[in-house]
């Protein structure tokens, strides 16, 4: 990426912006999942969403006083980290912008340095990013779903098959989508380490990447094992792991759905394992209206959470309109008729 394009991205990141409204935040989350905009706006938008989500969760789920205390502490911890990261990100962006404008930067490999040592990673294949250092904390997240372990593991399995990584035998999640923080923490409830790790420069400003590690769980499956188990469950008629696989690595094409073209497409390194390969990195796991209906049914109480989170992928599933005869078929299937 040349100097001119880096300068353009930095200008977009630093442009003035008013405080976000909840409507603006939910519009971005429900249509594309990621929050993007000027650096001051984005961090405040994350905080606005955190506040919104926690309030909705507290209203929707039966929680003990101790669980509410954990939930609100999780909220306060996240908001504090966001404030600290915003300050660091703004300082680094400003230093880099000044260096680029004044021509005092230097390039070493894929890093562009300001005179004070601040650097940004740049290449032609990915968005430039600035690392955030030392912004971390621990917090607990309560058990919202109260599911038996065997049902909870079906939800965990799909996340492991997609976005979830491994950190010294502990499940780890990295995301730029605030709804995923809650969707994933819910199935890995307990103690978390939370880090804000980078700011990515986009064509609309910046996005924020957060990493969370579930310290209360040991990693049970390798990535390949999880993918194989998702497929095996699907063959036996259990769609729950596919749901969370799709929430992690699935495509969300609302335009196709609104046209009545229902496709569950998942991005994967080895797409043939998850379904019919439709490109080098994409699998068609299922298609048709019934597939979306099965996906929606499989969520159970987890769907309550996804509804209130306004997760863009789940919004696509919720667009499904079924006829009375299709609803009857669905009820019979649930009863095993």
Written account of the structure:
This protein has 337 residues and is α+β, with helices and mostly antiparallel strands. The chain has two domains: 3-214, no CATH class; 223-318, no CATH class. Helices cover 51% and strands 19% of the residues. The protein contains 13 helices and twelve strands. The chain has helices at residues 3-14, 22-31, 39-60, 65-102, 149-161, 178-187, 223-235, 240-249, 254-258, 289-299, 302-309, 312-318, 324-335, and strands at 106-108, 111-113, 119-121, 129-131, 136-141, 165-167, 170-175, 190-202, 205-214, 263-267, 276-279, 282-287. Strands 4, 5, 6, 7, 8 and 9 form a six-stranded antiparallel β-sheet that branches. Strands 1-2-3 form a three-stranded antiparallel β-sheet, covered by helices on one side. A three-stranded antiparallel β-sheet has the order 10-12-11. β6 and β7 (170-175) form a beta hairpin. α3 packs antiparallel against α11 (302-309). The longest helix has 38 residues, at 65-102. Mean pLDDT is 92; it is low at 322-337.
Which structural class matches the secondary elements? alpha+beta
Distance between the amino and carboxyl termini: 59 Å
- Estimated helix fraction: 40-55%
Residue fraction in strands: 15-25%
Radius of gyration: 21 Å
Mean pLDDT: 92
Mind summarizing the main beta sheet? Answer: 6 strands, antiparallel
> Helical segment tally?
13
Total tally of structural domains: 2
What does the overall shape look like? globular
Secondary-structure element order, as H and E? HHHHEEEEEHEEHEEHHHEEEHHHH
Unreliable runs = 322-337
- β-strand number: 12
């Amino acid at each position: 990426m040349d100097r001119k394009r880096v300068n353009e991205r930095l200008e977009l990141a630093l442009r003035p912006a008013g405080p976000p409204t909840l409507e603006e935040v939910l519009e971005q989350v429900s249509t594309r999942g990621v929050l993007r905009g000027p650096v001051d706006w984005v961090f405040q938008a994350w905080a606005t969403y955190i506040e919104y989500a926690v309030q909705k969760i507290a209203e929707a789920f039966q929680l003990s006083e101790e669980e509410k205390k954990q939930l609100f502490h999780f909220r306060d911890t996240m908001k504090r980290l966001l404030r600290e990261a915003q300050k660091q990100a703004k300082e680094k962006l400003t230093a880099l912008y000044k260096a680029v404008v004044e021509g005092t930067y230097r390039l070493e490999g894929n890093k562009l340095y300001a005179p004070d040592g601040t650097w940004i990673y740049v290449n032609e294949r990915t968005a430039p990013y600035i690392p955030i250092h030392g912004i971390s904390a621990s917090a607990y997240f309560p058990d919202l779903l109260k599911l038996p372990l065997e049902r909870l593991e079906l939800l965990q399995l799909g996340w492991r098959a997609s976005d979830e990584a491994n950190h010294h035998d502990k499940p780890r999640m990295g995301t730029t989508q605030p709804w995923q923080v809650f969707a994933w923490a819910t199935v890995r409830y307990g103690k978390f380490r939370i880090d804000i790790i980078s700011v990515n420069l986009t064509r609309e400003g910046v996005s924020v990447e957060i990493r969370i590690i579930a310290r209360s769980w040991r990693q049970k499956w390798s990535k390949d094992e999880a993918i194989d188990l998702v497929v095996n469950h699907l063959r036996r008629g259990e769609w729950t792991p596919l749901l969370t696989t799709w929430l992690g690595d699935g495509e969300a094409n609302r335009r196709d759905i609104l046209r009545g073209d229902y496709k569950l497409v998942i991005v994967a390194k080895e797409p043939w394992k998850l379904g019919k390969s439709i490109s080098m990195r994409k699998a068609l796991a299922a298609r048709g209206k019934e597939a979306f209906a099965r996906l929606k049914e499989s969520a159970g109480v987890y769907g309550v959470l996804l509804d209130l989170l306004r997760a863009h992928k789940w919004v696509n599933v919720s667009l499904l309109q079924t006829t009375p005869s299709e609803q009857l078929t669905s009820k019979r299937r649930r009863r095993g008729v």
